[in-house]
Amino acid sequence: MLRRRDPEYERNVFINCPFDDEYTPLFEAIVFTILACGFRATCARSRLNSSEVRLHKILEIIGDCRYSVHDLSRTEVDRTSALPRFNMPLELGIDLGCRAYGSGYEQKSFLIFDRDRFRFQTYVSDIAGQDIVHHDGDPNRAIARVRDWLRSETGRPDIPGAKAMQLKYATFRGELPAICEHFSLDILALTFADFLFVAGVWLTLKIRPLRS
Amino acid sequence: MRGTSRRKTIRLKQIRSGVRATREMRDALKSLGLGKRFMFSEIPDTKAVRAAIAKVPHMVSILDGPDILFPREKSTLGIDRIIDAVEAVRALRK
User: Fold this and answer.
1) Between the CA atoms of A10, A3, A72 and A155, what dihedral angle is there, to the nearest 10 degrees?
2) What is the predicted ipTM?
3) Number of domains within chain A
4) Of A32, A134, B27, B73, which sits 20 to 30 A from A147 (CA to CA)?
């Protein structure tokens, strides 16, 4: 079924990553960087409607985003089932297919992360020709990579430097517990939408608050 | 080069709704190219613009980077409450 593309397609960034507690620091750093660069972050968590089929939801989101961040760092064998987790490579494959076959999607741009530099060559050697960056599980490195990618892909001069972004994020992390406490919220239980709003408001007010 | 000097601009973001504002404040917002919450405008940085900003300092934020986009979904926390919380935390840290 044909559906209209999001009017803000050019400013939407899809994040394809694991959603576990261990990954949360990286995920939040990536979301913050995308917001601070003037883009809108979205992921499968942004729509919590259980009546929707998960894959359909992901397909729609991929179709609405010109930019995508794919993190393959958790493609590893599960200890209990002894089977690999393949959600992230599957979504990367869908995105690559969208770019290759979708009319009007030729300009799609991806940032592919892995834990180490050449690890992906052992389990998805078909993408060996792609430039894949590694973050070593370090949020600051992830911030720099996402910022550099968005700046080079969009050519926008108003995106701040990586150091400034990392400093901003450190300040935000320092204030976030107190903001959550204000709402009697558990910092680990913030929903994706609430995190986006808190980070968005913080960034908007932080830049130059007019009220003392 | 002659005639190519760029005019200094200012980037503004409306952070509070103008619904309960006075007519004078709403006019000031309109003159700044704003009117609805989260609207963004980039206008020349002149004395007149600064004077208009001074009329609505609590409703407008001056950005020194790109426009910050908010999600379209509704926040369960409430935007105004988040703004109050961030300002309260900053005041405490000062």
Assistant:
1) -10
2) 0.82
3) 1
4) B73
Residue A19 predicted with pLDDT over 90 = no
Cβ <8 Å between B85 and A208: no
The Cα diameter of chain A in Å comes to 57
Beta carbons within 10 angstroms of residue B23's beta carbon: 7
Model confidence over B42-89: pLDDT tens digits?
A: 999 999 999 999 999 989 999 878 888 887 777 778 888 888 898 888
Q: Is A42 helix (H, G, I), strand (E, B) or coil?
A: strand
CATH classification for the domain delimited by B9-93, as one of 3.40.50.300, 3.80.30.20, 3.40.50.80, 3.30.1390.20: 3.30.1390.20
Beta carbons of A202 and A191 less than 8 angstroms apart: no
Q: Which domain holds residue A52?
A: 9-162
Q: Is residue A94, in this structure, part of any structural domain at all?
A: yes
Give domain status of residue A58, yes or no. Answer: yes
Tens of pLDDT, residue by residue over A171-198, are 999 999 999 998 888 888 788 888 999 9
Which of A71-80, A135-144, B27-36, B53-62 is predicted with the least confidence, judged by mean pLDDT?
A71-80
Q: Is B52 on the interface with A (CB under 8 A)?
A: no
CATH number of the domain enclosing A103: 3.40.50.360
Q: Does B89 contact chain A (CB < 8 Å)?
A: yes
Task: Decide if A40 and B53 are in contact by the 8 Å CB cutoff.
Answer: no
First to last CA, chain A: 52
Q: For residue A139, how far is the Cα from the chain centroid?
A: 12
Closest CA in chain A for residue B57: A210
A200 inside domain: no
Instruction: Indicate whether A100 belongs to any domain.
Output: yes
- For residue B22, the tally of other CB atoms under 10 A from its CB is 11
Q: What is the pLDDT of residue A207?
A: 55
- pTM recorded for the entire structure: 0.88
**pLDDT tens-place string over residues A33-56:** 999 999 999 988 877 777 778 888
